[in-house]
Prior knowledge:
By secondary structure, the protein is of the alpha/beta class. It folds into 2 domains: about 1-70 and about 245-290, no CATH class; about 105-240 and about 300-360, 3-Layer(aba) Sandwich (Rossmann fold). Helices cover about 45% and strands about 15% of the residues. It is built from 12 helices and 9 strands. Strands 1, 2, 3, 4, 5, 6, 7, 8 and 9 form a 9-stranded mixed β-sheet that branches. The model is unreliable at about 70-75 and about 360-368 (pLDDT under 50).
Amino acid sequence: MASLLFHxxxxxxxxxxxxxxxxxxxxxxxxxxxxxxxxxxxxxxxVKYCAEALVRRAYGIRPPFPLPAKCGWLKSHEYIFxxxxxxxxxxxxxxxxGALDSGNKRLHIIDFSIVFGFSQWNSFIKExxxxxxGLQSVLITSIAPKLSKHSDYLRRNREWARHFGGTNLxxxxxxxxxxxxxxxxxxxxxxxxxxxxxxxxxxxxxHKLLAQDGAMEQVLSxxxxxxxxxxxxxxxxxNLNSLxxxxxxxxxxxxxxxxxxxxxxxxxxxxxxxxxFRRQIGNAVACERVDRVERIKSFDQWQNRLSRAGFCPVxxxxxxLKIDLPFLLKEFGIExxxxxxxxxxxxxxxxxASVWKFTDPPQFNGGK
Length: 368
């Protein structure tokens, strides 16, 4: 049944791309009748959300994906799929710890995250100051989207910083909702002192720059101008960047089936995380040009783009991560690929953490 449903989705996508909406309507009706017969709950959901997105694309239904629920009551870590959140938090902290040494007196973390939680950074900074007694001050610049007009997480972060940060921990927040916002925000931070280590941390946000021509190149150039010591990138790991609907469906079906399977054991925030991935599917299928921000890349694609921009990889201490993460994520595993870290389920990769630093691009002599 799963194979038949998948082929009907492909046929429907091809019909929509070809403007044959009568054929698409017929296929969608067949998909609707076949879906309840699929035994796998998570495959049923993937089919349902892909079909929903195809309808919205075909008929220009606005908004092109379901609106988010009001989320002011949620904690910061509940805005994002828990395994992704924990994976990003732990790998980023390991990377920053690995970059510090006893000579660093000041630390500036420029944090681009899908959500920023000051309380999460606060405990980490306390650990760093105990380990590196010479670390005198820390500045955290948070550059994150405003998730909802109903959300008060920005206010809570300011309160956390005021009450618990102390005199040696400063936090400031900037908002970005579109790729050009990110470009503008990255131009504001400056390296103020030579004894300051600068870390640029991307948690599931760097891929959004792919929606706007030239935005990625501009931002990577700004990171270079900052003379950032390291750049930490955590992203979903899959080749889901195709603008061809049929190709996107072929690339995505197993990935999202694995994601939705993992949700079955999570009851407290399961509905919210389903909405998170439902919106991802809807954005990738129903949106075009700059409105399509969910352009998920594979490890090889990121490596190629960053290498061409003059960045080289920094190997991570994967053995320590293999101890910490599986303890928190019992149904997930950690694998290493060329010094980078993969979050896997059933050995199928779902997310990637990598660390980079800028190096002068190689000089070519024109020979072959």
